[in-house]
Amino acid sequence: MRKRHGPGFAAVAVAALAAMLGMTAVGGASTWTVRPGGPVSMKSGRFTLTDTTTGSALSCQSSALSGTLKGGSALPGSGIGSITTVGFTRCSTPIGGFTLQAHDLPWHLSFSSYNAATGVAAGSLSHVKIKLLMPDCDAVIDGSSGSASDGIVNVRYTNSTGVLQARTTGGNLHFYNVRGCAGLIRTGDSATISARFTVSPKQVITSP
User: Fold this and answer.
1) Cβ contacts of residue 189 below 8 Å, gap of 6+?
2) Inter-residue long-range contacts of 113-118, CB under 8 Å, 24+ positions, other chains counted
3) pTM of structure
4) Tens digit of pLDDT for each residue in 27-72?
5) Buried b vs exposed e over 22-54: b needs ≥16 C-beta within 10 Å?
6) Residue 2 counted as domain residue
7) 129/110 Cα distance (integer angstroms)
8) N or C: which terminus of the chain carries fewer CB neighbours within 10 A?
């Protein structure tokens, strides 16, 4: 006698199929296509570095990055881009102006997941290390220590706008070696970066 499956079995099968389709749309991606790739510049408006413990926000009027993206198809997501120059303009805090200096370049741009419905690629900028300098305040912004050069900032790139956004969640940045700073920032406090970079020339980044 052929065994008949009840409604419960059908519901489970449909749910499993839906889950599989969802994973295809937004899940981890193994290969990538980048067009056109090559040399790129990335310019933002306000660039904000925040101590999430004290709530202090240190802002620059603008920032600019430049580097290269691999172009073509069947590319690995890891190390798909390299940031070789970083600059910051007109930076200030409640206690005065300051300078930010990018260290241990190049920084590495990688992508790990893609949402085909929205055209958004998610990933990270790694190997990040920044020094903050002012007359009565200096610090290092890094990942696991002030000398590790392993800072990570989560990012997402939107194909329709050509904007690479630094996200304030999921990274590992902290302040280290803080001297002075009037309590605005403190050694060991978590740090986040907020900025929206317009990428030129505009890229189309998809997976697969």
Assistant:
1) 51, 52, 53, 54, 174, 175
2) 113/26, 113/27, 113/28, 113/29, 113/207, 114/26, 114/29, 114/32, 114/205, 114/206, 114/207, 115/25, 115/26, 116/25, 116/206, 117/25, 117/26, 118/158
3) 0.85
4) 567 899 999 999 999 999 999 999 999 999 999 999 999 999 999 9
5) eeeeeeebeebbbeebeebebbbeebbbbbeee
6) no
7) 17
8) N
Residue 138, in any domain of the structure: yes
Is residue 85 domain-resident? yes
| pLDDT tens digits, one per residue of 68-126 | 999 999 999 999 999 999 999 999 887 789 999 999 999 999 999 999 999 999 999 99
The amino acid at 204: V
Distance of CA 67 to the CA centre of its chain: 15
Quick check: is 1 in a domain? no
Domain that holds residue 166: 7-206
